[in-house]
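Late entry, evening session. Most of the bench is empty. Finally got around to the prediction I had been postponing all week. Sequence below, unchanged from the version circulated by S.P.
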Amino acid sequence: MSNSPKSRTLQLPFICTIILLVSACEQSSQQPPSHANDSKVDEISEPTNDSNMVNRFEIGEELTEQVLKGWDIDVRPDGMGLPKGSGSVEQGEIIYDDKCASCHGSFGEGEGRWPVLAGGVGSLTDERPTKTVGSYWPYASTLWDYINRAMPFTAPQSLETDEVYALTAYVLNLNDIVDSSFVLTQQNLAKIEMPNRDGFYADTRPDTLNPRCMSNCTNLSQVTIKQAISGITPEQTDLMAQQTIVNGSSDELLVIDDENTNLVGKATYTQACASCHDNGLAGAPVTGNKQQWLSRIAGGTELLYRHAIEGFNAMPAKGGQTAIKDENIRNAVDYMVLLSSEIPPQNSNN
């Protein structure tokens, strides 16, 4: 380090600071700790019978009516909780076009995957019902509360009370529940009768705890499917095949001269093969397309068995279901060949 006058000048403040710090530490070690806040220390360290922990620890603040009012915004079906205000269908249309239509569509039809608000009446018993304000919601208060609490999506709770009334009125009008001249108020909202008001009921069934069952839980042949969704609900014959496989006796299901009797093959196909071979995914030959299967069947069933069990090209071994027995995979191949050829295959007896 240089010993020039400039460098010595820079060192002096640093040395003085070190001396002052050492001196302060020595003085503090010789002095007893301050008891300026002794009362607070005793108050925290000594337990008392006082149940008012807030005063004791001085944490938080008293809950005032004004603060509670900011959280207490729910609205009941009977109108309890509604603030004073009003809004017309005509006013709601203007607000809706400005703040809601970009997501929910000009007429409540929904843009893209945003929720549909109108229509769907009578669809609740369909396989894929359209649940809207008009077709599903039982109370108008739910609509008011949801708009007030969560809309618009980009700025929730930014609407004025009268704007919420107006938007609620307009959405009800989109569902033909009120006419175009309707004015919604605190007094008349609870009187509105929604189309699906009787579609909900209190479930009085008791809670039950069924015992855990891992095998032989029920006789699937006694299970009757009343309604099915294609590709999701197993077919009745599949359930029978699964029961037979579980019980370890599948000989009677290996008959393959008819597609409905090869139940093991059909069940295995549905479980491991259908996702690709039903649609030709990843180049898989479509089951039932005789032209696509012609050259494959000509190669012999043993080759088809080997490809199905070991995997071939993009097809994983056993369709990715490696826990399935080889025998069941062969039956699935027989099932596919049966549906895709003019001549039924010979039973592999494996």
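Two things to note before I forget:
Residues 79 and 111 are 31 Å apart (CA to CA).
The first strand starts at residue 86 and ends at 88.
Will write this up properly tomorrow.
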